[in-house]
Amino acid sequence: MREIKFRVFNDKLPEMIIVDADSDFVLKFGNDKPLLEMYSNGGEYVDQWAVDHVMQYTGLKDKNGVEIYEGDIVTMHTEWAGSYYGEDEGGEHENKGVVVIVPSKGVMINRCMKRDRMELDAEWEKTWSVNVRGYRSKVIGNIHQHPELIKGE
Predict the structure, then answer these.
(1) What is the pTM (predicted TM-score) of this model?
(2) Given CA atoms 102, 58, 117, 126 in this order, what sign does their dihedral have?
(3) In the predicted model, is pLDDT for residue 114 greater than 60?
(4) What values do phi and psi take at 123, rounded to 5?
């Protein structure tokens, strides 16, 4: 069974915080922004913060053992024998994109950018996605702390 946990971030927190069953934090969802509540080891309420970004753990780890969350930017080597737009593209390719969880498809890389095919039309680049294979991927950052890794690709 997949471990259920989240990673949260906003500009006021010094770092990303992992929220799981063993942490001193509780994540609450309401009408406004999600709230992160902190409790002491004794279970007493300490403080709370509004959270800008909530990222769910995918249950996958990259080839270096790093946990993969929604919003992570990963590179992944893929191999296929097909073709797109009538051009032969068979072989191995490096893809880069943002991890998303799609209920009907699983864990995907969205907005993949193939370094060797930048001339493809913009619509194809926005919608093309690949299932994440943890053993072939590498987390290089996330869209909230390192947006420059994906912009301008």
Answers:
(1) 0.77
(2) positive
(3) no
(4) -65, -40
